[in-house]
Write a structure and sequence with these properties.
The complex is a heterotrimer of chains A (176), B (251) and C (346). Chain B is an alpha/beta fold and 251 residues long. Chain B contains ten helices and seven strands. Chain B is globular and about 50 Å long. Chain C has two domains: 227 residues, Rossmann fold; 112 residues, 3-Layer(aba) Sandwich (Rossmann fold), CATH 3.40.50. The chains are: A alpha/beta (176), B alpha/beta (251), C alpha/beta (346).
Chain lengths: 176, 251, 346
């Protein structure tokens, strides 16, 4: 396996956290991995994006410019990155927040109303994880068990009560 | 025959480079007397400044460090934090402590850093040849205030003890002088109190000692002592500005 | 773990007894990690009032004979330069971390490599050098901080980890080596003579010119030994390469990806990565580029390493440069394009 993943959205949407969950999935499955954030000086509300590489081989450049998998959680990120996705790659778009559609035929686009789904299921703030659930299902990268273990690592013991809603988000993502 | 007066053991027996009439020698001696009385030479680390006393490491028999200009309190902080059981003191002049090193002075004081700071205030930069110091008195003539310090352009002197006494981390802030035997005795007592404070983990202690600079004041040693009494002491009043042991005793 | 946190943990394991710092992006995780862990280990964490105070606290703790460290980013390192010169002049060991950001001036907060000259040529006044390590992965952040402490003690000189914001913020899996002995006997330390030895003096002032010259000569003799023993570089697919990319730190990883892609396209590309920036691994670079037709230096700066590479190959091979600066990170494609240009030129 060699997957280059780019996650993008606004600060505060949990972009970096979603990347961390993917990175930990790689760690649980004993893969080589890297996680590289790029965010503006403002910690909240600015644009945030994050490169994750997961591979069987040591990772050379940790910087992802042409992703195999891309997740966009706002319009500017979608516009900026949809044309960078490799041919044969997949894109995961929060269609509650992004109204545009791509006309690229060689990219498999999944439009998931993740923010709406989170609200409907009373698990606000987990749209990022819903999209990650969808991503790992469609790419076949990781199992539910792997992401469950990864979430247990990524959520601090103080907030362990949030584990349940994140797992629910994964389930929703994997089933839509 | 009984010996009634001798050189303190912790003062190295060597010729000093200080000018005739300079009071550094007296102050060095007082510190060494205290170190000897407390028997702590082997457990003391001194930090020298940049200024006339830059080479004080050749005179004190304890371990010594030469710090960058103004940074002695930061260096002393590093030593004391690494070796909390040892005694650490800095020896600094007015340019070092109250100009370039103001931040280090104020912050080591407000942290309550458990060190002793000996502050030698002679109202002038000695080593560089007599320029205006942060403590130069209004009207005082120096190389860089040839018409006398004009407060309109050069501002006012920094009064360190008054300033530091406002900080909670300070255990002792006392201003003394070495112009007379009673004042010299008072100075020694203050130094002893400062080291005792360190021994008892009371925090930051500063002893500001009004001192002379015959060479750069352009006065004889005797005239210098006179100026100390008639000009310096009135501008920088002697006294205890803060002493937490006083309030401790009252409790 | 994040690069900055892994580095901090490694420093603790390497026996760092005192850490003094001042907040600055993008290295603040180091201070935060130290603040959490050092007191639990019975060690010293102190947030200083300035970078200047922090480096002088390091001077004090190093004088006391313990392993001491400070960390900062580019503008903060400039402030530390005074203290670094005094530390070098006093022959004190310590470790300084520079997680570089774009400059000059306040610059930016994005990754950069524009402090190469400062670190390798002129981090302060006077005749002196620092050991400079340039990690390119989170694992190397760990390994090199340990090596930096050991070699700083061994050669009695300051050592620097010259990282960048990208490495500091990046997360990768990492393993920590078992460390047996992390303290060196330091008979020169000013830790109280206990009436058992003559008094020690830590000093960089020598008013007699011949005395100061003698000390500088002695120090540079020691540097000659360091130049013999310490240079390190990685070479990758250089044996048959026509075009060799020279890059260090995080950029070397980007360059490696470009080399992979060039090879896929049939271009014989290779990579040489200096690991120590001082001493500069000139011999390794010279040997590994003997058969190459050209060299491409790639950096996140305006080309600060180019001259050292030219000197290493004694100007026998054309040395080209491609760099981004101000916090812009070059992409593998950009580097690949440059490789292609050079490939096409032949």
């Amino acid at each position: 396996m060699n997957k280059e993943i780019l996650l993008a959205g606004f600060g505060g949407q949990g972009i970096l956290f979603a990347g961390k969950v993917l990175a930990y999935c790689g760690l649980m499955d004993k893969k080589e991995l890297s996680w590289l954030p790029s965010y503006g000086p403002e910690m909240r509300g600015g644009t945030a994006n994050c490169s994750v590489c997961i591979s069987d081989e040591p990772i050379a450049s940790p910087l992802v410019t042409e992703p195999d998998l891309m997740m966009a959680m706002n319009q500017p990120s979608f516009e900026k990155f949809i044309n960078k996705v490799k041919a044969g790659g997949k894109a995961f778009i929060d269609s509650t927040l992004v109204s545009l559609k791509s006309d690229r035929k060689e990219v498999e686009c999944h439009y998931i109303p993740a923010t709406q789904l989170a609200t409907d299921n009373n698990i606000n703030g987990t749209a990022n994880i819903i999209l990650i659930g969808k991503m790992i299902k469609e790419s076949g990268m990781f199992s539910f068990d792997t992401i469950k273990k990864a979430l247990e690592k990524c959520i601090s013991p103080k907030r362990i009560n949030l584990l349940g809603i994140n797992l629910k988000a994964v389930e929703i993502g994997m089933s839509v | 025959m009984a010996v009634v007066f001798e050189k303190p053991k912790s003062l190295i027996d060597t010729a000093m480079h200080y000018c005739p009439g300079c009071t550094h020698g007296i102050i060095h001696r007082l510190i060494c007397e205290v170190i000897d009385e407390m028997g702590i030479e082997g457990d003391t680390i001194g930090v020298c400044p940049v200024g006339c006393s830059v080479m004080a490491y050749d005179y004190f028999a304890c371990d010594m460090i030469e710090a960058p200009h103004g940074r002695a309190p930061a260096v002393a902080t590093g030593v004391k934090r690494a070796l909390p059981d040892k005694y650490v003191f800095t020896y600094q002049g007015d340019g070092d402590l109250a100009a370039i090193g103001t931040a280090e002075t104020v912050h080591s004081a407000t942290r309550g850093e458990n060190i002793v700071v000996i502050f030698v205030n002679n109202t002038i930069y000695g080593m560089t040849g007599g320029q205006m110091a942060p403590t130069t008195i209004p009207g005082q003539i120096t190389q860089t205030t040839p018409y006398g310090r004009d407060t309109k352009t050069a501002g006012f002197p920094v009064k360190i003890c008054e300033m530091l006494s406002a900080l909670d981390g300070v255990a002792l802030a006392q201003r003394t002088s070495v112009d007379s035997v009673p004042h010299i005795r008072e100075t020694k007592n203050a130094i002893r109190k400062a080291f005792d404070n360190q021994k008892n983990n009371r925090g930051f202690s500063i002893v500001e000692i009004l001192s002379t600079c015959p060479t750069n004041w352009g006065l004889t040693p005797v005239e210098s002592m006179e100026r100390l009494r008639t000009e310096c002491i009135p501008y920088f009043p002697l006294g205890v500005y803060k002493d937490i042991t006083e309030t401790e005793e009252k409790k | 773990m994040k690069g900055n946190e892994a580095l901090a943990e490694a420093a603790i394991r390497a026996g760092c007894r005192c850490y003094f710092g001042y907040p600055i992006t993008p290295q603040t995780e180091i201070a935060a990690y130290m603040a959490k862990r050092m007191p639990k280990e019975g060690r010293v964490f102190l947030q200083a009032e300035s970078e200047i105070a922090a480096i002088n606290m390091v001077l004090g703790a190093a004088s006391a004979g313990v392993r001491a460290m400070t960390s900062s980013s580019s503008p903060g390192i400039s402030l530390k330069s005074e203290g670094v010169s005094y530390i070098a002049g006093s022959d004190l060991p310590c470790v300084i971390i520079n997680v570089q950001r774009g400059g000059p001036g306040l610059g930016g907060i994005q990754p950069s490599q524009s402090d190469y000259w400062q670190a390798t040529k002129a981090l302060g006044h006077g005749d002196f050098q620092l050991l400079v390590y340039a990690p390119s992965s989170v694992q190397e952040m760990v390994d090199m901080v340990i090596k930096a402490f050991d070699n700083a003690d061994k050669y009695r000189m300051p050592a620097m980890i010259l990282a960048d914001g990208l490495l500091g913020q990046m997360m990768e899996p990492v393993s920590f080596p078992e460390i047996q002995n992390n303290q060196t006997y330091k008979p020169w330390a000013t830790n109280g003579h206990g009436n058992k030895r003559p008094h020690n003096i830590i000093n960089s002032l020598f008013l007699q010119a011949d005395q100061l010259e003698k000390l500088n000569f002695e120090r540079f003799k020691r540097y000659e030994i360091v130049k013999e023993e310490c240079p390190e570089a990685e070479t990758y697919m250089t044996e048959d390469a026509d075009i060799i990319v020279a890059a260090y730190g995080a950029v070397a990883r980007i360059a490696k990806s470009a080399v992979h892609r060039a090879r896929e396209m049939g271009i014989k590309a290779g990579l040489v990565r200096p690991i120590t920036l001082w001493p500069f691994p000139s011999e390794i670079i010279k040997k590994s580029t003997e058969n190459a037709k050209s060299i491409l230096v790639t950096e996140m700066s305006m080309g600060q390493m180019v001259d050292d590479i030219k000197l290493a190959v004694e100007c026998k091979i054309p040395v080209h440069f491609y760099g981004r600066t101000g916090g812009v990170v070059p992409t593998p494609d950009e580097v690949l394009n440059e490789i292609k240009k050079l490939g096409g030129a032949q």
